[in-house]
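Journal club prep, shared notes

We agreed each person brings one worked example of a sequence with its structure written out as tokens. Mine is peptide chain release factor N(5)-glutamine methyltransferase. I'm keeping it raw so we can talk through how to read the token line rather than staring at a rendered picture. Sequence first:
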Amino acid sequence: MAKLSHLIQEYSKYLLDQNESIAYISAITNLSRTEIWLNKHRELDEVLGEINLEKCKKAINYVKYGVPLSRITKTRGFWNHDFHVSPYTLDPRPETEKIVELAISLSKKNKSKNILDLGTGTGCIILSILLANPLISGAGVDISKYALLTAKQNAKSLKVNNCTFMHTSEIEENKDQFDIIVCNPPYIHNPNPANLDNPKEPENYCVDYATKFDPTKALFDQDGIQMLNNLPLSENGILLCEVPTYQKQLMEEKFKKNYKWHNTSHREIVILEYLNY
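Then the structure, token by token:
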């Protein structure tokens, strides 16, 4: 009978090393990495069981083609929580956590009452903020009704009750003004996903391997900043927006003053902080 170590070796053919292979198997089976490591010389079915063994065999077909772990497990860790991801949502990235960090700090400092998330996707930004500061109310907006279903699912699983979700068309009818608006807009101009591998394109500096598995609506837009027009931002309200460095000048021309930049964990991505006064 095959040993667990054989499965680890099989995964390692397509991943960086045994440690990454064990991390994948751990996420797929919900067994701890320590359990897998200590039992790697035991027979597969004894350690994993029939159901987990089938999961691992099925998952390796995705691993072969570079499918990210979050797309296999349909879960992504972001800030301090796990979020369900779907084919209709962007896979949350670590650099976007800077928006959450800034929004939590500013909302507490300014005693903000409400916050709007444009292009909410999984809801990871707005829900992370509300979990850290439950004294404010939130709203998440998206153009995809299926993404909104995912966000609502995450809100329910995380027991967040002070957030509403609405389609983009509804925000135009909403007369509320928001103290903070957060946004991670689609900012890749290239309309052809096949050209993502061209390193000469400045917009591809911020593209990673997971981008190939993200929905195109969350990535591509000839004018990604158009969603920042006519913002329902209150007086002295704050906009926090993720921006690739090659678009900094474009954003500076749009907002002209009362802005500053924050670095993120990604060298080609920054956060714009704009004060509306």
